[in-house]
């Protein structure tokens, strides 16, 4: 497979998914040439490493030892820090937000949104916080930076650099889904009670279109349930 062809990443991803087919997310995750192998115990982790290595060997794929890290309790993966406690944002990725200058154009604002949206499941009421900024990117809207926009901009930055650790879902515990709705956005929080603490698994929020804004509050909250992308 030649490098630099536009379809090379998709081709390679398809190859890796074929090679590791049958291994569940409880054993490994793969994105292009980044593979993360997990396990609840040391022995389970070791067995999963053997399984992945055997698949790669059978496919005649080789690893670079200097790029491999073994038996880590915490790893950085695709802009996230993954540990036994859960998943959080990678400070190395989000620290750029702290020094992000105030957007001067729609293009600047969309660049900021690109980073924020990637981590939106870590931010409660993301759509409500970002609504004033989102309006500036809508068609036929003039780029008029107001105090409300400045507050929204700073609130998003603060939310990203103080985002919580999202816990892993446990099938042996009951799930709790809280929903909320306003005139313009809907939101939800998926969590579980572990011990005496209610632990968040993910946040969801979405701006409403014109038809959705005409719904009553009950229907809006029902819409939050069927719209959420928790998986």
TrEMBL record:
<keyword id="KW-0695">RNA-directed DNA polymerase</keyword>
<protein>
    <recommendedName>
        <fullName>RNA-directed DNA polymerase</fullName>
        <ecNumber>2.7.7.49</ecNumber>
    </recommendedName>
</protein>
<dbReference type="InterPro" id="IPR051320">
    <property type="entry name" value="Viral_Replic_Matur_Polypro"/>
</dbReference>
<dbReference type="InterPro" id="IPR041577">
    <property type="entry name" value="RT_RNaseH_2"/>
</dbReference>
<keyword id="KW-0540">Nuclease</keyword>
<dbReference type="GO" id="GO:0003964">
    <property type="term" value="F:RNA-directed DNA polymerase activity"/>
</dbReference>
<dbReference type="InterPro" id="IPR000477">
    <property type="entry name" value="RT_dom"/>
</dbReference>
<feature type="domain" description="Reverse transcriptase">
    <location>
        <begin position="1"/>
        <end position="82"/>
    </location>
</feature>
<dbReference type="InterPro" id="IPR043128">
    <property type="entry name" value="Rev_trsase/Diguanyl_cyclase"/>
</dbReference>
<keyword id="KW-0255">Endonuclease</keyword>
<dbReference type="Pfam" id="PF17919">
    <property type="entry name" value="RT_RNaseH_2"/>
</dbReference>
<dbReference type="GO" id="GO:0004519">
    <property type="term" value="F:endonuclease activity"/>
</dbReference>
<dbReference type="Pfam" id="PF00078">
    <property type="entry name" value="RVT_1"/>
</dbReference>
<dbReference type="InterPro" id="IPR043502">
    <property type="entry name" value="DNA/RNA_pol_sf"/>
</dbReference>
<keyword id="KW-0548">Nucleotidyltransferase</keyword>
<keyword id="KW-0378">Hydrolase</keyword>
<keyword id="KW-0808">Transferase</keyword>
């Amino acid at each position: 497979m030649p490098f630099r062809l536009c379809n090379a990443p998709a081709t390679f991803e398809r190859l890796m998914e074929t090679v590791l087919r049958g291994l569940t997310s409880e054993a490994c995750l793969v994105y292009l040439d980044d593979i993360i192998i997990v396990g609840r115990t040391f022995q389970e982790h070791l067995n999963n490493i053997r399984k992945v290595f055997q698949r790669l060997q059978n496919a005649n794929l080789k690893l670079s030892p200097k790029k491999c890290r073994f038996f880590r309790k915490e790893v950085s993966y695709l802009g996230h820090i993954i540990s036994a406690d859960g998943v959080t944002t990678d400070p190395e990725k989000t620290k750029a937000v702290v020094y992000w200058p105030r957007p001067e154009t729609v293009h600047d604002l969309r660049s900021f949104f690109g980073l924020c949206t990637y981590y939106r499941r870590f931010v409660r009421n993301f759509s409500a916080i970002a609504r004033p900024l989102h309006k500036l990117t809508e068609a036929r809207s003039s780029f008029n930076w107001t105090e409300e926009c400045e507050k929204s901009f700073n609130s998003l930055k603060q939310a990203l650099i103080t985002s919580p650790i999202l816990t892993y879902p446990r099938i042996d515990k009951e799930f709790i889904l809280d929903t909320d709705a306003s005139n313009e956005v809907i939101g939800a929080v998926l969590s579980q009670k572990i011990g005496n603490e209610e632990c968040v698994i993910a946040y969801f929020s979405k701006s409403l279109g014109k038809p959705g804004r005409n719904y009553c509050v009950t229907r809006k909250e029902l819409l939050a349930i069927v719209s959420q992308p928790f998986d």
